[in-house]
Structure formats: C-alpha cells, structure tokens
C-alpha cells in the first residue's frame, strides 16, 4: 500500500493533498478520521494523526473540536500555487535533463508542445 | 484505564548467564509497543518479568506504580500470551475460555465469541489436539478478549497462516482504537506489524539498544546509492551500518541525523536517497561481527 520511500504519515498527507488538488475532497468537507485512516491502511492511529498534524500546520486542514478535521477554504489555492512553483523545477527541468541524457533535441520537444497546443486551440 | 510501566536497571541472571543487563525504560501506556530483538536477546525474559511470571535478579519494575510480582491487583491487569502457550493441554478449548473469563475482570464474552468465529476455533476440541496455528489463534483470542489494561503478546502468531495473522493485526488495531489500552508485541515479522507500533524497543544481548517512536527511529536511517567515490564522500563522518557494492555503484546504509547540507550535496551529485525500512534498520543495528561476510 505504501512504498518505503518516505514516512507513512508523509504519504498520508500527500494523498490528502492530491485529493484536494484533484477536487475529490472539497473545501469545508470533512476528511476521514485518524481512526478510519489507521484502520484502512492498518497503521497506528498516532501515525495517521501525525499526517493530519502536518496538514493542519500547513493550513490545509482545520479542526472542529469534537467533530473532526475539515479542508480549509483556501487549501486548494494554496496547494495549486505550491505545485505551480515546483512544476518547472520538478517536471520541466527533469524532463530536459532526461532529454539531454538520451539525446532528444530541445526542438523536438518544442515541436511536440506546439502540436499539443494546436490541438487545444481547435 | 492506562497503566504506565517503569523499569529501572533491570537485571535477570540465569545462573552465571545475564539474560537482562541494566535495562531501563518508561512506557507511558495506552500505546502499541513493539519489542524487537534477535533470538536470545532477552525479549521473553523481559516480558515474563512484566507479567510477574518470573522474578528479576536486580533493579526494579513498576506497573501503575506498583511492583507486579505476587501482587494480585496488578497481576489481574496484565495478560501475557506466550508463543509456547501455557494453557493446560488436557482441557477443552471451551474450558480454557471459561478459565480466562474468570481470570480477567475486563473479559468480554461477546468479543471472545466474535473472535472464535473469526478464527474458526473448534471449542469442543482439546487444546492439545489443536494445530500449532490454532493454538496461537486461541492465544490471540484469549489475549484480545481479556481486554486487560496491559496485554502482552510474545510471538503469539507462530504457526498462524498469513490470512489469520492479518486478521489478528486488524482485530488488534480496531479493538485498540475502540478500547485504548497498552499492548506490547514481540515479533520477528517486523515488516508485517511494524506499522502498528507507535514506539519500538530493541533488545540486543540483554541490553536495551533503543526505545523510540517508530517513525523517529525509521527517519534516522537512510540508504545512499550512487557512484562509489561520491557515496564515500557523503558517508564520511556518518555511522555506516552496512555497505554493498555492485560494480562501480555503491550503496550504504547510514544511521544518524543527516544534515540538510549533506542531503543537498548528495542530491546535487545525483546520488539516490532512500529511507530504510524498520526491518532493515533492525538487521543492521543488531548485526554481530561474526555475521558479517
């Protein structure tokens, strides 16, 4: 279920973020409880709670006392801004490095992008 | 109710052999603890002392602030399920359950019934006629249904097949969330149960090597892979637990806080960074000189 590449609580936080970005989780919607997460992934509830804590610290989730955790109003915008910031570094730069490594000329990449743009314009 | 456990300078001698040496730790209680250690590291000895099955030679043990040995008030709060099973073999499963129900004040009959169905326990059979796996399933049932504030499973899963073990983990976790209490599990199947532990204790040759939050312990290990010279540069000054070479590629497992600088330097050199699983960390940390090739 989880890979071994990062701590489980980090992966839980990432999954919730992904759900917020993709719109599966809407703003002011309640997220599953730590116990539900723990039971679903068969992990200690304290580990799940750590993932939630991470998200509250980042302002993605907020807590309603006695009810549970909810998605913040500005969560999606915050996450989209973060993802856009990282896009060129993590996606474009990496793609260019890979292209250079295997000998794909930049012109070809640009051509491909123009093609895609052409399709979108139609 | 949660009972804290405090162990100070604990020692246990079997004749001239010291099974436990100067073991000290404090468990706040109300958590799931993992007790890890190689064969003969002292796990069963430690658990037997906590369960008042054995008297220690030196140091002190307190459960809920009281010494547990021959202390009826504490003894009925601690349920110890051993791998070997300590039930009278001649009795029927049904009688073993009845006996347990009379021993544990928090015993839950309905929950026991649910577990009996879950594990398909033949209640009319004699305990001695059960397979190894069924004996373990009975142990697991007794331990969970006891609802004892401190429940200890010492490799309780032996002989259970994978589906039964996973059913056990699931029950343990769900019942823990519904009825919070202290669980201590000793195990060799770290990969299977590691994610259930909030804290882990690692025993090695009768000494306590670590007592830490599982995630904290895990985050202290890292595997660095890449060209040998670059890996060696990064690993300099770090505790190297193990290394492997494949041609010019080298992979080292390091232990200890990795500075952000080192991490950045490693990444800019194109080295691959990976966390180390609890199991791998355990293997590296408890490896003896004689085991190394």
UniProtKB/TrEMBL annotation, chain A:
Pfam families according to UniProt: GntR
Keywords: DNA-binding, Transcription, Transcription regulation
Keyword hit for DNA-binding: yes
Species for this entry: Paenibacillus arenilitoris
Domain HTH gntR-type: 6-74
Protein name: GntR family transcriptional regulator
SMART domains assigned: HTH_GNTR
SUPFAM superfamilies hit by this protein: Winged helix' DNA-binding domain (SSF46785)
UniProtKB/TrEMBL annotation, chain B:
Entries under PROSITE patterns matching the protein: ABC_TRANSPORTER_2
Organism, scientific name: Paenibacillus arenilitoris
Entry annotated with the keyword Nucleotide-binding: yes
SUPFAM superfamilies named among the record's database cross-references: P-loop containing nucleoside triphosphate hydrolases (SSF52540)
Superkingdom classification of source: Bacteria
Domain ABC transporter positions: 5-230
UniProt keywords, alphabetically: ATP-binding, Nucleotide-binding
InterPro entries referenced in this protein's UniProt entry, alphabetically: AAA+_ATPase, ABC_transporter-like_ATP-bd, P-loop_NTPase
Keyword Nucleotide-binding part of the UniProt annotation: yes
Protein name per UniProt: ABC transporter ATP-binding protein
MF annotations from Gene Ontology: ATP binding; ATP hydrolysis activity
Pfam families: ABC_tran (PF00005)
């Amino acid at each position: 279920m989880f890979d071994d590449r990062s701590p489980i609580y980090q992966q839980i936080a990432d999954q919730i973020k992904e759900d917020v970005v993709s719109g599966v989780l809407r703003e002011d919607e309640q997220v599953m409880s730590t116990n539900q997460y723990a039971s679903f992934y068969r992990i200690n509830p304290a580990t799940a709670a750590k993932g939630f804590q991470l998200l509250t610290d980042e302002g993605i989730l907020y807590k309603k006392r006695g009810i549970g955790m909810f998605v913040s109003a500005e969560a999606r915008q915050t996450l989209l801004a973060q993802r856009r910031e990282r896009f060129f570094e993590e996606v474009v730069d990496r793609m260019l490095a890979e292209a250079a490594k295997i000998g794909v000329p930049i012109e070809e990449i640009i051509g491909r992008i123009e093609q895609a743009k052409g399709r979108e314009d139609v | 109710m949660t009972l804290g456990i405090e162990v100070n300078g604990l020692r246990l001698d079997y004749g001239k052999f010291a099974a436990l040496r100067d073991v000290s730790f404090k468990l706040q209680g109300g958590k799931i603890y993992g007790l890890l250690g190689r064969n003969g590291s002292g796990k069963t000895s430690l658990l037997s002392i906590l369960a008042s099955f054995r008297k220690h030679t030196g140091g002190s043990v307190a459960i809920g602030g009281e010494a547990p040995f021959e202390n009826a008030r504490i003894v009925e709060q601690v349920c110890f399920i051993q791998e070997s099973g300590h039930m009278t073999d001649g009795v029927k499963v049904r009688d073993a359950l009845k006996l347990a129900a009379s021993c544990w004040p928090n015993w839950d009959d309905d929950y026991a019934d649910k577990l009996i169905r879950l594990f398909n326990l033949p209640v009319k059979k004699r305990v001695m006629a059960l397979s190894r796996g069924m004996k373990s399933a009975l142990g697991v049932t007794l331990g969970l249904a006891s609802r004892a504030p401190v429940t200890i499973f010492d490799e309780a899963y032996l002989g259970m097949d994978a589906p039964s073990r996973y059913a056990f983990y699931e029950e343990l976790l769900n019942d823990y969330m519904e009825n919070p209490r202290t669980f201590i599990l000793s195990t060799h199947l770290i990969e299977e149960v590691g994610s259930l532990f909030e804290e882990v204790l690692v025993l090695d040759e009768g000494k306590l090597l670590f007592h830490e939050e599982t995630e904290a312990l895990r985050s202290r290990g890292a595997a660095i892979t890449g060209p040998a010279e670059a890996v060696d540069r990064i690993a300099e000054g770090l505790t190297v637990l193990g290394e492997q070479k494949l041609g010019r590629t080298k992979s080292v497992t390091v232990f200890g806080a990795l500075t952000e600088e080192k991490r950045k330097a490693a990444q800019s050199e194109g080295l691959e960074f990976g966390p180390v699983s609890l199991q791998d960390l355990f293997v590296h940390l408890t490896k003896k000189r004689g085991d190394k090739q």
